[in-house]
# Entry
Amino acid sequence: MYGSFQCQQVPRRKTIHAIVDNYATHKHPKVQQWLARHPRWTDLQAAINRFVAETNNDPKPFVWTAGPKKIIAAVRRGYQVLDSFH
# Structure
């Protein structure tokens, strides 16, 4: 769709959540028609709203389980992976 991204890079069983601009492009009738023809693609806002609605049916308090050392280690691993792509 944009840049060098191709749908073939995402496994067919995965849903693709699109992040669109702040100018309501996703509300344009042509964009809505395109999304209707491509059910794998969904507006991220719709996914968030669905998650919130489903979570609110059986809410549970969030319990933080990771300590700061574990979080920092994960961030470092993430940077290493990102750096390996360049």
User: Anything to note?
Assistant: The CA atoms of residues 20 and 78 lie 25 Å apart. The radius of gyration is 18 Å.
